[in-house]
Amino acid sequence: MSDCYEKMKFEMELKGFSQQTQKHYLNHVRLLEKYLDKPPDKISPDEIKLFLHHRIKDGISYSNINISCNAFKIMFNSVLNRNFSDSTIVRPKKLKKLPYVLSKDEIFSIFDQVSNLKHKAILITIYSAGLRISEVLNLSCSDIDSKNMLIKVRCGKGGKDRFTILGQENLNILRRYWKLYKPSTLLFPGKLQGQPLAARNIQEVFKSAKEKAGILKSVSVHSLRHSFATHLLENDTDLRTIQVLLGHANIDSTCIYLHLSPKRLSC
C-alpha cells in the first residue's frame, strides 16, 4: 500500500470508520487511479470531474457515486490537503425513487425456494429483524437474546449499536441452524477463519430464489428490510418504534414507508 493510501487508512481509523467502510473508500480511490492511470497526488480537479461524469453516464447508482465523493474528500482534503470544494467533488442530485416492497406471500414464496438452512436462516433474520445484509453477517452468537427476544446489532450504520426484535419463527430457525452448524463466535461464519460469509453469496442466493419463485419486481436482499418496516407499519406500529428498530438517525428516512404501505395509502 502506497504512502498516501496508508495515510488515508490512518485518517479513517481516526474517524472511527468501520473496516468495511475503509475497504470501500480505498477501493473507490483505486478506481479513480486506475481510470486516469496516475497516482492520487497527480490528479487534477478536472480529472476528478471527468471520472465522476464517466460513472454517471455509465449508470452507476447514486449511492455508489456518493461513496466515491466521500472517499475523495478524505484522500484529497484530509490526506493531500487540496481543500477541494463541492464544485470539484460534485455529488449528483439524489433521485427520490420509492423502493419496491414484497408482500408476505411473496417473501414466503422466495424463502420456500432456499434449501440451504444457513442461507434460509440469514434471509429470514434479515426480514424478521429488519437488518442490513452487513449487520446480519456480522452477528455473533451472543447477540441473540432469546430470553428477552431481542437481537443486538453491533456497529450498525454510523457505528451505532441498537436492539431489534427477535420473532419466534426467527428464533426457531436459528435454533435449528445452530444445532446443525454449531457456530462458536460468528453466527454466520464464512470459509476463512474468523470472517463472516460473503455478502455476494447471499445476494446470489436471493436472486436465484426470487427468479424461481416467479417474482418479477426489481427487488434485492435489502428489499426484505424495506418490507419489514412496511409490514410493521401496516400492523399499526408507530413510526418512532420503526425508526429505532431500523437504526435510522432521522425520522424522515422512516417516513418513506408511509408511501409504501397499501393500507396507509388507502386511508
Order of helices and strands: HHHHHHHEEEHHHHHH
- Total strands: the figure is 3
Name the poorly predicted regions: none
Helix proportion = 40-55%
Radius of gyration: 21 Å
Number of continuous helical runs: 13
The portion of residues forming beta strands comes to under 5%
Give the class from helix and strand content and strand pairing.
Answer: mainly alpha
The end-to-end distance, rounded to whole angstroms, is: 57 Å
Query: In what order do the strands lie side by side in the largest sheet?
Result: 1-2-3
Coarse shape: globular
Largest sheet: 3 strands, antiparallel
Mean pLDDT: 92
Structure explained in plain terms:
- The chain is mainly alpha-helical.
- It has helices at residues 3-14, 19-36, 45-57, 62-79, 104-111, 117-129, 133-137, 168-181, 199-212, 222-234, 239-246, 251-255, 262-265; strands spanning 144-145, 150-153, 162-165.
- Strands 1-2-3 form a 3-stranded antiparallel sheet.
- A hairpin with an 8-residue loop joins strand 2 (150-153) and strand 3.
